[in-house]
Write a structure and sequence with these properties.
48% helix, 5-stranded antiparallel sheet, 5-stranded mixed sheet, DNA polymerase, domain 1, 4 domains, Alpha-Beta Plaits, 18 helices, globular
């Protein structure tokens, strides 16, 4: 088996070298024309990923999923010893309408307090709940310290949020010993050196390693091997599988699918007809089929979309009220697109009402664009044409998708004003420069001023009229 692995590694290395040598003349040709390199970065990313995918199929991997237990709450309890032994929840600001539980410790969890529920709901379950404000700078600091320990065992570490990471330790076994020994050693070191606990899942792919880390918490190591698929994994509820969210879980219930085993045994054509490609992916996951590589931080997939969202401080009841929010988000999306050198060909809007139901609408643009005014105009058209305001709006997100490079060619449209688009692009670029030099508040659209400021300005300047009003 070891000889096969070595042969595969040599073959993959040779294939990468051969691919590079074949593409080198092409790379030079395009570089001479001074074309952007984003397409080449994407090309080499996919080549490298696909080669590793072949290796993953042919070799037996050892993947760890390390999940910091109740991370935010654990950090707060570590920083403030007075909180230890109490029922603690890290909560958002009620004034800014983020009044939900972001994290809770094990004591609060025993009362049934759940992440994501409103603070008042949590207090009904646990009257003596201690709510503390989040300290994100400390969470980032602790996350980096934990990751530095992971890096001592492998360079193949893929973050999955601030408190979770996948580690591919296949190549570390000869250095550090058995997979369970490595997992236990990492768990003990984080507890001793940093003061936090983790749950570690050990398996042969990322999906099952993630599932294993969720089975036993806190402060535990759980192993799922190929022989455990039917006995351990298939008995678990379907919503434990990564990729099965609230809506998918509802659809599964309607189909009579309750467990991961039910997903695994559902015919592929049914999964594809109802859920599309994601249905086939979920069925593969349920059958233990996942060959996706653990990606180093330098191997982040190419950007496919850019989005910005916000929870409003009060409910919004009309397009006039939502428009300033959308233009503010559009400016942020526009800035990010210019920063990364992309244009959007699709605009999408997600609207969450005060019952926390999300509706999404999207449209294809006539021509690639990234000007804030263009994104705002199309986003507002989507809202006006599709959202009837039966319920007020609580949160809004603006997406720019199907991105193309800023040197990409595209079909011209006869009824598009390209001169105006060029002016808007230049205007936004100058605004970016001013904000980078003097701060984000140096230029603010009148339409995005809050109601109090608008009234104050109106009284001082009777002729004042906000933009986009």
């Amino acid at each position: 088996m070891e000889n096969v692995k070595n042969s595969v590694e040599k073959f993959s290395s040779s294939l990468i070298l051969l691919t590079f040598l074949c593409l080198k003349p092409l790379f030079k040709t395009f570089s001479d024309k001074k074309l952007p390199l984003d397409k080449f970065e994407q090309m080499f990313y996919y080549i490298r990923t696909n080669v590793r995918l072949v290796v993953n199929i042919l070799t037996e991997r050892v993947i760890l999923h390390c999940d910091l237990n109740n991370f935010f709450a654990s950090v707060e309890c570590y920083l403030d010893p007075m909180l230890r032994g109490k029922n603690v929840a890290v909560c958002g600001s009620v004034e800014e309408r983020h009044g939900i539980v972001l994290a809770k410790n094990e004591n609060a969890k025993s009362y049934g307090v759940k992440t994501g529920e409103a603070i008042w709901e949590a207090r009904l379950k646990c009257p003596d709940l201690v709510c503390v404000s989040p300290h994100y700078d400390k969470y980032i600091e602790f996350s980096k310290r934990v990751k530095s320990i992971y890096d001592e065992y492998t360079d193949m570490v893929e973050p999955f949020g601030i408190d979770e990471c996948w580690l591919d330790i296949t190549g570390s076994l000869l250095l550090f010993g058995d997979k369970i020994k490595i997992a236990e050693e990492i768990r003990e070191r984080i507890k001793k050196e940093i003061g936090l606990t983790i749950s570690v899942g050990v398996s042969f792919n990322k999906i099952l390693a993630k599932l294993a880390s969720d089975i036993k918490k806190p402060d535990a190591v759980t192993l799922i091997e190929e022989k455990d698929l039917k006995t351990k994994v298939w008995k678990l509820p379907c919503y434990d599988l990564l990729g099965v969210g609230r809506q998918t879980s509802k659809q599964f219930r309607a189909m009579g699918i309750k467990t991961i085993g039910d997903i695994a045994n559902t015919p592929e054509e049914i999964m594809k007809r109802i859920f599309g490609k994601s249905g086939i992916t979920l069925r593969n996951y349920a059958n233990g089929l996942d060959f996706s590589p653990v990606l180093r931080e330098s191997e982040v997939p190419p950007v496919k979309s850019v989005s910005r969202g916000i929870t409003c401080k009060r409910d919004l009841y009309s397009c006039d009220e939502i428009s300033p929010v959308v233009i503010s988000l559009s400016e942020k999306v526009s800035h990010s697109l210019r920063k990364h050198g992309f244009f959007a060909t699709t605009v999408r809007v997600a609207v969450k009402d005060n019952q926390l139901i999300v509706k999404e609408f999207q449209k294809k643009l006539k021509t690639p664009a990234r000007a804030a005014d263009v994104l705002h105009k199309n986003a507002m058209e989507l809202i006006k044409n599709n959202y009837l305001f039966h319920l007020p709006v609580r949160a809004v997100t603006v997406f720019a998708g199907d991105l193309v490079g800023d040197k990409s060619s595209y079909q011209l449209c006869f009824d598009e004003n390209y001169e105006q688009l060029d002016k808007l692009e230049k205007l936004d670029t100058q605004v970016d420069l001013l904000r980078e030099k003097f701060g984000a508040d140096i230029l603010i659209r009148a339409s995005t001023l809050n109601l109090y400021e608008r009234e104050r300005i109106k009284s001082a300047f009777p002729s004042f009229k906000p933009l986009n009003s």
